[in-house]
């Protein structure tokens, strides 16, 4: 019985400490962009003001965030970004908890993309 409880605690702690998978925005290749789902988790206004090519907008702060992913295969590779990487990191962690297996946060977000273009 103690072994079962101990194994359960180890599993719980291990899952709680899972790392957010991140990539620098400059590491994303054109080939990857053709095979992944790129999601801008900013507000629609921020999205309209500028976004990455081929990105869809699913607002992390909107109550429809989860429903925006309902038709997406949980094994699909998903790259998330926001303005600086904070919202997208939270969204990536949340999607991971829902069972999406290949979710990446684009480190530095749209600001890093803009800086890399200059």
Automatic annotation (TrEMBL):
Give the InterPro entries listed for this entry. GlpE_sulfurtransferase, Rhodanese-like_dom, Rhodanese-like_dom_sf
The Rhodanese domain sits at 32-115
Q: Which Pfam families match?
A: Rhodanese
Entries under PANTHER family matching the protein:
FAD-DEPENDENT OXIDOREDUCTASE, RHODANESE-RELATED SULFURTRANSFERASES
Instruction: List the protein's name.
Output: Rhodanese-like domain-containing protein
**Species of the source:** Maribacter luteus
